[in-house]
Amino acid sequence: MLFSITQLARCQANDSRSQRELYDLFRPKVFGLCRRYTQSRQEAEDVFQETFIRIFQNIYQVRDAEHVEQWIKRIAVNTAVNYYHKNKRHQHAIEDNGFNYSNDDYALILSHFSDEQLIGLINNLPDGYRLVFNLYEVEGYSHAEIGEILNISEATSRSQLNRAKQTLKNKLKAFGVLRYEKYA
Amino acid sequence: MKSTHEPFDKELKGRLLNYTEEPDKDLWQGIVRSVVSLGPEPRWVVWTNRLSVLLIALSGVFFLTVEERNPEKEMLGELSSSYSDIDTIQVRHPTGKDDLSVSGNVVRKQTILPGDKPRAAEVQPSRQRRLGLETPATLAVSALDEKFSIEVKSDLSLPRHENVPDVSISAATDAASKTPTTKLVFVKDVPDNEDRTSAKKETQDSDSSEKKGRKKSFALYFTAMPTFGYQRIEAKKDDQLYIQGIKRIPAFSADRLGVRLEAGAEVPLSKRWMVFGGLLYFQRKQTIDYVERQNERMVTGTEGEFVEQYKYTPKSIEYELRNAGLQIGLTYRLWMARGKSITAAGSLLPGRRFLHVLGSGIEFHKALDNTRALEKAEYFTDPSTYVFFNVYYRMQYPHIGKLRAIFQPTFNYSFYINENLNAPFYVKPYGLGLILGCTYNFR
User: Fold this and answer.
1) What pTM does this model have?
2) How far is the C-alpha of B364 from the C-alpha of B382, rounded, in Å?
């Protein structure tokens, strides 16, 4: 996604038209990210709005137009994490059933799911699991970084990731997926 | 950073990373409402702003065009129309009736200045009639020293006395020049049934009595004025709240607009000084939009740096003042066109027909009903009495007459406003006001 230097400058000057252009350019991506980090569409909308409010209030910090997307993504992730902290729910971890599966035919497994269904599976993970899963598997944060962000230890992060995956496996199974490789 | 090598995870990551979804369309409006200075204003605000600017522009054009309509070539007309400022004019006709000159030395016209070159001017028919001139005449006007002279080159005979409603002429002989001298006396408010020949004497008598009378007389006035208020707002530094920004309101905005009505009496103390006092009603709606920032926590950024995260909360304070009050003050008339007695300020200010006044006063306001905070009511305490001190410059058109247009920039200082605003910022007790309106004097 290209956002020009001129557009950035205008955004920083509070030009409403450029702000709308930025919004139109990044809104699907940002909302997709928000959907991954939240349990419901309603929560995603809250995070989405808060994200863009922060974006427009802090866009003056951006110096390079090439990094706008990365900066926006970081804002969105931080906003989602903040939302998690503000709305911590006491959820019980879902016990896995102890089955292990192979992922030899992963393409087949995922092919059974549309993107929306996949997001639905992620949404149904407990909040903590979902965050660690997204931060580690999708965003690429390390366990140490996740520990800092979520105020948990590295070990907890690892544990939550494993449980997230195990839970995901069970859900996949519930949707009729036969095999899912044990993930260490 | 870690990287996964499992094919399933790569596939999963790829699909989740590139997942996009369209949000609801109305979310943008929510963002616009929340972000300071973002997005277009509501239409009614935009149009109100435009109308305000148009009003200001039209007022400016009005004042300027009125000034343009009074060129100096209408000197005689000026003199006669503003005759109340003229004491006497002597008309000399040394070479006979075909070459008539008019001179005088007690004229309060601002435009006749020392060093001015002679100017020719046509006498308008209406002015001729007013002066008793029967045929078109050409006047040459010069101003030397404090005196001026008007030469009338015409075939006319001396101005007649009979048909001149408010100008009377008396003849006398100038002992030094041995030339017959006619003295024109512009008489204000001389009854038609009075003897015109005695008008001069009466006028001379009335001059002194009028001066005395002015001090004793008073006039009632009623003034209606839309006002624009300008205040300085600063965040408080002694609380734990951080104001990220306060929305800037355009100079001519409905958010600044108020209405002010005044009624009272003014009593002249001298020709320049006047004291006034009366009642006033003031109504103004004000909106203050601001964003509050609170530190939430520290998180680690993508490159391992610590990033401080803030919570931004857009807030808005909207309230309406409806005050009734008393005012008392003093005004000083800047412009008094009497030869060199034109003040420096007056000579710089536009318009011979404008009245330029400096004023100062104290106002005591009392809220008629509760100061209404439409939102965030917790920011306001009970209303009380407001006390304002103000200094203003007022330009009125015309300078005489009952109905006058007003242009009045005002500096206000408020003594108690902070006590009523329990907000995380100060509204500075001083501010500017711009008043455009009209006043009607009941004399």
Assistant:
1) 0.40
2) 17
